[in-house]
Amino acid sequence: MLYFHPFATPLLRPLFLGLLLLFAVQGQAQQKPKKTQPDTITTQTDTTRFDERVISNLKEFSERKTIMGKLLSSILDFDQPDDEALNLDAELIEREYERHNYKIVRRIRIIPLDAFGYSIHDTTHLPDTWLEKAGNFAHARTKRNLIRNKLLFEKNQALEPLALTESERLLRQTDYILDARILVDERTTTNDSIDVVIVTKDIFSLGGSGSFTPSSGAGRLTVRELNFLGLGHQPEVTYRFNQKAPRPWEFAGRYSIENIGKTYITGNLAYINENYYQERSAYLFRDFYATNTQYAGAAGIADIEERILLPPTETDTIPQFGNLAFIRTDAWFGRAFKFKSYNLGYEPRGRLITGVRMIHTKYTTTPTENFQTNQLYLGSIGYSTRKYYKDRFLFGFGRTEDIPVGSIVSVTTGYENGDISDRRYWGASAAFARYRESFGYLYGGVSWGSFVKDSNWQQGMLQLQSLYITRLYERGNWKLRHYLQSRATFGLNRNPEDLLSINKNDGLRGFNSSLLRGTKRVTLNYEANLYTPFSLFGFKLATIAFADVAWLSSGNKANPFNERPYTGYGLGLRFRNEYLSFSTIQILFSFYPHLPANEDLSGFKVYEASRPYYDFTDFRFERPGVAEFR
After folding, report:
1. CB atoms < 10 A from the CB of 442, how many?
2. How far apart are CA 225 and CA 210, in angstroms?
3. 3 state DSSP class of 276
């Protein structure tokens, strides 16, 4: 397999790619023709033989003592170890280290690795090119104390059940860590004590993105750092320039500090100053980060001004907007209770969880009379079971992924004390997920919620969702998965301003209509991901084929299936470098046969997307809240 080093700059990629193709073609032309033998049976395809010849030619050029040979040698690596060869099977995380429960932890050894040239499976492997060394020099390695603060066990303390596997999962889900392994040193293990070795591998945490339109001179520049100075701080700044009226510039800045002082409390600050959205907010929160977490909560304040879309009429040719401004203070607290277990060393997965929340919203500008300053008090109770499997090639390109499975049921009630009127709130939700390596992943969920005033149900919502991901089909170094998702959202007596769209991730990927809105929506989405063995400058390549269908209708009694569905079909490419903090790059070619009659839209579209269309739903208990209608 041919690999390219990941620290090559994006500006040089087209030049390098052109050079590689040139050398490959030249090498083919210089080869002497071989005599062919008719009627010879071979088990290899012409494409495979061509790939092998290209790689052989590139390797030959890289070994030459010329300037171009040295350049190719610095960006190509023909002997890079392949972690995929380890063939990690899906396994239940919770039961990996049951035999070590309640042993005393004698020593904790932490080995943080830089982003380039190191292997988490072989700590003796070192960077051997100047690009890898330069990348590591520019990267601040994660501090050991930051890793230690993520651990759910301590030195000279008894090891609680799940502490090792849950700590490994928490490290792996950290933004600035690519992968993590927590190992027990079996050579020094005794009947009552153990030594623990922790190996983590960083990603190159400094990243960004940008865009520029030559015709208008407008553009965007984003710079983010996921692990500033190795301390876990995460600043991000976005600046837009040469924008259209009313103002030529926009700015957004965010700053986050994760796990302050080993409390698992995260702090977020945000200042956003855009043409049609402005926000100043500050939050502190702590969720049920692990299966055995007992306490969670949050507190914060936000000052928001935005422009919202007003209900369209049949004669509208341009969207109509209204201004909305409010100040919101929010606080909640949750407590988890576990059931007793008389089986020493076994940790019951089920948790009974309660939560209370208070939200105060003061509106200073409203577009209609349907917004009132209010205080909302909410309380909920639920039961959750969750566990995790490990596998790969679901949303990543080979890194270890934690697959949440389990079930959750919750009931929420509350009371809104408004300046104009008061009303109650009722809601309920349930979800489950199952995973088997031979079957794949299956998720299903349902949620419902509504306000009640004088026996009248107001602003109600019913939502259904399912996601099925097939098992991984493999043939050589090629890997294939299929994704099938269905979603249905039904609004019940919603306010006229509460509208659903089928734009982008809400329905048809890449689709964008300003006027197409409704109160009932049903979507079906299919995707096939083919993970190829090719890697360009460290960016692994996958191909995508997708088909989306969406039904949309308005009115309480309107049936969305009586309307003609909107559809989207497409093909695309997906690139990702697991060593960098850059988002996944997707270039998609899509076609939409059915378009709104009163909008000038193109049936074909080429666009870039940076986030996956699907994602896992964790079974951790969330803060009590009103069912979201979006």
Report:
1. 17
2. 15
3. coil
